[in-house]
Design a protein that fits this description.
By secondary structure, the chain is α+β, with helices and mostly antiparallel strands. The protein is built from 4 helices and 5 strands. It has a 5-stranded antiparallel beta sheet, with helices on one face. A hairpin with a 6-residue loop joins strand 4 and strand 5. Helix 1 packs antiparallel against helix 2. The N and C termini lie close together (about 10 Å).
């Protein structure tokens, strides 16, 4: 995946209360945005992308409250890739490699193992980016279309 995220022509940002309904709303918003951007719901990456997104939002709701009171989802797409990020204000930065290999621990590792298996299986990438103040993070997923 070599497409810089800044180069993606389609972008949408959604901020939700960090409560269980956020998972459904984030998925429904993704489905609507993808349809608007011309990405078919039948594309082989869309189903797994929605599952990945749901897992990441659920992890934020489950494990980042408090100090998080909201979750922000950024959606982006271009002709050859789909990207999204889930941001919360909890300082814990999960080790994505450990989730993929089943080593290590930490909050949300089981869901992250699924996220990593799906992401790498589709040829995508996953990155954790900490906030500048060290009090939050975003998990970015990029998948080829």
């Amino acid at each position: 995946m070599s497409t810089p995220l800044e180069a993606l022509p389609h972008r949408h940002v959604l901020t939700l209360p960090a409560q269980p309904p956020a998972v459904r709303v984030a998925r429904e918003t993704a489905e609507a945005a993808l349809a608007e951007w011309g990405v078919s719901a039948s594309h082989p990456a869309v189903g797994p992308a929605l599952l990945i997104l749901g897992e990441l939002v659920a992890n934020s709701v489950r494990h980042a409250v408090p100090p998080t009171c909201q979750v922000t989802v950024t959606y982006a797409a271009g002709p050859d890739c789909l990207a999204f990020a889930v941001h919360d204000r909890h300082p814990y930065r999960p080790p994505l490699h450990a989730a993929r290999t089943g080593t290590g621990g930490g909050a949300g590792t089981g869901g992250l193992a699924t996220v990593m298996e799906l992401t790498t299986g589709l040829g995508g990438t996953a990155v954790v980016r900490g906030d500048r103040d060290g009090r939050g993070k975003s998990i970015w997923i990029t998948l080829p279309l």
